[in-house]
Structures are given as C-alpha cells and as structure tokens.
Amino acid sequence: MIDIILVAVVVLVIVTAIYRVLPHRELGAKKPSLAFFPKYQHQVPHPGSDDETEQIMSSLGFKKRRSRGGVTEYSRGSVIGDLSIQLSKVKVVFHPVSNDMLPYTVEAAWVAAFDTGDHWQFTKELGDKLKSG
To answer: What keywords sit in the KW lines (predicted)?
Structure first.
C-alpha cells in the first residue's frame, strides 16, 4: 500500500514539474479535441486601459492576485474543482503592452495533464472579449 502511495506522489511531482517547465503554446486557429499540458499564449489589441482589462476580468469571476513590473496576474476557481474550466483554478497573466498589443497567458493554476479544448476555448473567448471591450 505504501508503494502505491509513493508511486502516485512521484508521478504527481513529475507531471507537475513537466507542466511548469513546458512553454506556453500559441493559440492556434483550431480547437484541439485533446491537448496535453494545456498552456496557451495569445495577444490582442490593447483594450485602452488597465482598468478596462480589470473590469473585464472581474466580470468573468477573476480576482487580481498581483501586479508588478507591468505583469498582472489574475485567478479564479478552486484547486479542488473538477475538469471543467469554469470550476478548475485558472491563472491568467497579462504582460507589458508591446506595439499596442496586450500579450497574455492562460494556464491551470496548479497542473493540468490534459484537456479537451476547454483551456483553448477560454483563451480564445477571453481574447474576443478583450478585443470588443
């Protein structure tokens, strides 16, 4: 029994480490049916002000966690949520504006070994919402 627990802990540590070190993928044009280690990056025209971005994030249920050096981090959800993007803990990080474009990343706040396209869908919908203001 102890062996099974030890193996499970080791596998969890390895999966978490892999998720943390893998780079974010560019948001492609097509929603994947299955994605391993879903972490996405995207950029949209800057919506105008940081306050506007914060209002959009707040309307989606996100809370600002920290802001330093032009990098602002938001999160929502619970680590003990289910596989749904609406309930799992999600982290969105906005990076400094470059050439009037606002780059951002979306990832699971802890770890996600696989996904059925929910992270991609959310990343795209967030970009669309930021574009429309």
So the answer is: Membrane, Transmembrane, Transmembrane helix
Tokens of 33: 């049916």
**Backbone region of residue 67 per phi and psi (left: phi > 0; alpha: psi in -120 to 50; beta: other values):** beta
What is the rounded CA–CA span in Å between residue 88 and residue 81?
A: 5
- Cα separation, 61 vs 55, in Å, equals 10
Contact 100, 46 (CB under 8 A): yes
Q: How many domains does the chain have?
A: 1
pLDDT at 133 over 90: no
* Owning domain of residue 118: 1-131
- In 15-89, the DSSP E strands lie at 25-26, 35-36, 39-45, 63-68, 71-76
Question: 8: buried, middle or exposed (CB in 10 Å: 19+, 13-18, 0-12)?
Answer: exposed
The alpha-helical segments, DSSP class H, found in 28-69 are: 50-59
What CATH number is attached to the domain comprising 70? 3.30.310
7-19 pLDDT tens trace: 999 999 999 999 9
